[in-house]
Structure to design on (152 residues):
């Protein structure tokens, strides 16, 4: 299964692409629910959507260093993470396939190949927690470090 390194300021974590597609889909839902009036927010929205559609297997890149250049932008991204967490928590123990098909990834042309099951909420919450650690620069994992964490 393909995976990508999510990075910010040269630190980050490895995550399976299909799980990252789901996370970027949640972030895309969160940003769509906002009033976005700045160009960088619109660009971030487009990037989140593109990454959620599954076109970048083994090379998903969120360009966090380009988008999060100051504390205000970091706070905005953290607010998106918090909104994604709320969506997951509200879904209960699992994010069911119907939600994924209708809300999260409706434009995926090969959805049935990757999402034939419910996604455990605790897995999504763990990935979102790693994103939060990354935003606060409390995650010291480098791309070449051994992987000691699992998202399942």
């Amino acid at each position: 299964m393909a995976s990508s390194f999510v990075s910010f300021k040269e630190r980050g974590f490895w995550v399976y692409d299909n799980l990252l597609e789901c996370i970027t889909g949640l972030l895309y839902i969160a940003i769509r629910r906002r009033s976005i009036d700045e160009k960088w927010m619109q660009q971030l929205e487009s990037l989140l959507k593109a990454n959620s559609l599954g076109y970048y297997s083994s090379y998903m890149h969120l360009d966090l260093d380009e988008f999060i250049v100051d504390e205000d932008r970091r706070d905005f991204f953290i607010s998106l993470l918090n909104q994604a967490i709320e969506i997951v928590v509200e879904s209960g123990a699992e994010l069911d396939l119907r939600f994924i098909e209708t809300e999260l990834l409706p434009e995926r042309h090969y959805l049935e190949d990757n999402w034939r099951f419910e996604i455990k909420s605790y897995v999504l919450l763990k990935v979102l927690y790693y994103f939060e650690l990354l935003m606060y620069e409390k995650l010291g994992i480098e791309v070449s470090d051994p992987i000691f964490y699992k998202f399942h």
Q: What stands out?
A: The CA atoms of residues 11 and 137 lie 8 Å apart. The helical segments are 17-32, 39-52, 64-67, 71-91, 97-104, 111-114, 121-135.
